[in-house]
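User: Hi! I'm working on a homework problem where we have to compare a predicted structure to a textbook description. Could you give me the structure for the chain below?
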Amino acid sequence: MKLLFWKNNQAIDMIANNTANELFSVVQPQSIRDFFQSSSKDKKRKKEWKKVEANISFAIKQIQQFRATNSLGVYGKARLQHGFNNRLLELGYDSEDVRKLNDFILIRMP
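Assistant: Happy to help. Predicted structure tokens:
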């Protein structure tokens, strides 16, 4: 018998990995670093900044849709975010950039 908070572990891990892989395919680690280091008022990088922000927003939207359709509890939400962060680290993102991205995502999601 499975416990209730373990019912979606495979689905949670799959969506976390897929979302991180999709983000990596459009936003490379250096772009994320530049995104967090530059300001939105930097005219030279404004177009690139908006592109990175749009791709991050798309990843956030995917996570939100999964959370809404699967009614995750606290454990499931934490597992999803932790899996997403770990996959980004495996893909070569810097740990400080992943932490900043995590903060950015948590601020945007209720």
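For your comparison, note the following. The radius of gyration is 15 Å. Residues 25-108 form one domain. Good luck with the assignment!
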